[in-house]
Specification:
By secondary structure, the protein is of the alpha/beta class. It folds into 2 domains: 163 residues, Rossmann fold (3-Layer(aba) Sandwich); 59 residues, no CATH class. 45% of the residues lie in helices and 11% in strands. The protein has 13 helices and 7 strands. It has a 4-stranded parallel sheet, with helices on both faces. A 3-stranded antiparallel sheet has the order 1-4-2. Helix 1 crosses helix 13 and helix 2 packs across helix 3. The longest helix is centred in the C-terminal third of the chain and has 17 residues. It comes from Deinococcus radiodurans (strain ATCC 13939 / DSM 20539 / JCM 16871 / CCUG 27074 / LMG 4051 / NBRC 15346 / NCIMB 9279 / VKM B-1422 / R1). This is ATPase. InterPro entries: P-loop_NTPase.
């Protein structure tokens, strides 16, 4: 049996933020979405006012499984442009003047954006106007990360609901090695002595134990290339430097169960995760 881990208390929430200046759009357009720099048209609504379902989690925790489960509950469900696309349009292009593929550089640019916009992706997304003729009245977004984004969304957008997925960092590295996503690119030098290179990654000691790093280095014996192991580990370390999944989950546990579902995707199989998400999404 699956239940969300939560507390029954609710917290006071300030009015929704709709400051269009917080999410400037760029030369990389998002279809059916725009900054609120002019009055909304008849079919346009601020995303911050719509009952979004928002996936929460860092890379490699199983958000694709949860998204598929949500889509299975409603064939007409609309999925907004994902985090990468919104990040490109709102955060990356305005600073870099074009696309950036390297994830380490993307983390750097998004961190700069958050210095001026503490709500990060939540603040950017919630201020956009959506064409409901294209995106419907209750779309899904993938996704938010970290305490600041989740807290901002929970406090400013009371109609949003959240599905949070979690997995240990070593598991995330293994999943990244297996998924072959062309977006998972990062510059990683020094793979000749893999164990030393893993230990030498800035911040790796704060994310992985020595035993974890030994096990990751041992993945070479399973057929993975040393440079791939180092690159995927660097992605996880870089991401954890910017986002704390545990702190984000702690915020969601303060919400009532109808607003937040939290699942460990190692404890449950993909089929069980899907069943839990479908049951939660269709509850009265």
């Amino acid at each position: 049996m699956f239940t969300s881990r939560h507390l029954s208390q609710t917290t006071a929430r300030p009015p929704p933020c709709t400051d269009a200046s917080l999410a400037p759009m760029s030369a990389s357009p998002l279809p059916g979405l725009r900054a609120a720099d002019s009055p909304p048209k008849s079919a346009e609504r601020p995303l911050g006012e719509l009952p979004l379902t928002v996936l929460v989690g860092v890379t490699g925790v199983g958000k694709s499984t949860a998204l598929a489960a949500l889509q299975a509950t409603d064939a007409a469900l609309k999925v907004l442009p994902d985090r990468r696309e919104v990040t490109d349009a709102v955060m990356i292009w305005p600073q870099a003047g074009g696309p950036v593929r390297d994830r380490e550089e993307r983390f750097r640019l998004t961190a700069l954006y958050r210095q001026a916009h503490p709500g990060g992706m939540a603040q950017a997304l919630g201020s956009l106007l959506a064409d409901t003729g294209q995106w419907g009245e209750a779309p899904v977004f993938d996704g938010l990360r970290g305490e600041d984004e989740v807290r901002y969304a929970a406090e400013h957008f009371p109609r949003w609901r959240f599905v949070a997925l979690g997995a240990p960092d070593p598991v995330r590295v293994r999943r990244l090695l297996g998924r072959g996503d062309r977006f998972d690119q990062i510059q990683a030098d020094g793979a000749e002595d893999l164990r030393a290179a893993l230990g030498g990654l800035t911040g790796s000691a704060e994310v992985f134990t020595a035993a974890d790093l030994d096990a990751l280095a041992g993945l070479v014996s399973e057929g993975h290339r040393a440079e791939d192991i180092l690159a995927k580990t660097k992605i996880v370390v870089s991401e954890r430097r910017n986002y704390d999944p545990g702190a984000a989950e702690a915020v969601l546990r303060t919400l009532p169960s109808e607003r937040a579902l939290i699942l460990d995707t190692v404890q449950f199989s993909p089929e069980q995760v899907g069943a839990a998400v479908r049951a939660w999404a269709t509850q009265p």
